[in-house]
Amino acid sequence: MSSKINAWCIVQDHLDTLSNEQSNEKSLLDILVFYVAPLVAALLFYFMYGAIEKDAIAAAISALSIFAGLLINVLVLLYSISLRPPESLNKDSVERLELEKRFLRQIFANISYAILNAVLATVLLVISGMVAGVIAKVISSISVAFCINFVLTLIMSLKRIHMLLRRKF
Length: 169
Description:
Helices cover about 80% and strands about 0% of the residues. By secondary structure, the chain is mainly α. The chain has one domain. Keywords: Membrane, Transmembrane, Transmembrane helix.
């Protein structure tokens, strides 16, 4: 695969944020919430509903496209925040600056991953609208898992941004 489109580094950076802050080890609960729960929901969707209807596909594609565009703007905002010069430095402000940098790195990784997730979910939704039968059901279910993971990642990013900015206000 071309290094220009290999997005594994985005996935890896996001996975690195799913760790316990105290022990710095991967959080089993985070893995369960962000990956196992969406897969279980996708399996339930497969057996209960099957394929996503055309109207729902169009609505999901529209929503994901809008969110992806807005999230790209958030990445630009994060970049501009990272460029600002530090305030006068004392021991407390150095610790706070390091905490902010860590939060900004995590938020950057999570939002980049959410954008990638939205793109992949959109592609899968388009494909599911073009096929029929069992293939449509499988692709629809995978799309559901991506969409749930997208929403969970978005909520986590929102919480991290809130915590970062809460200290400013």
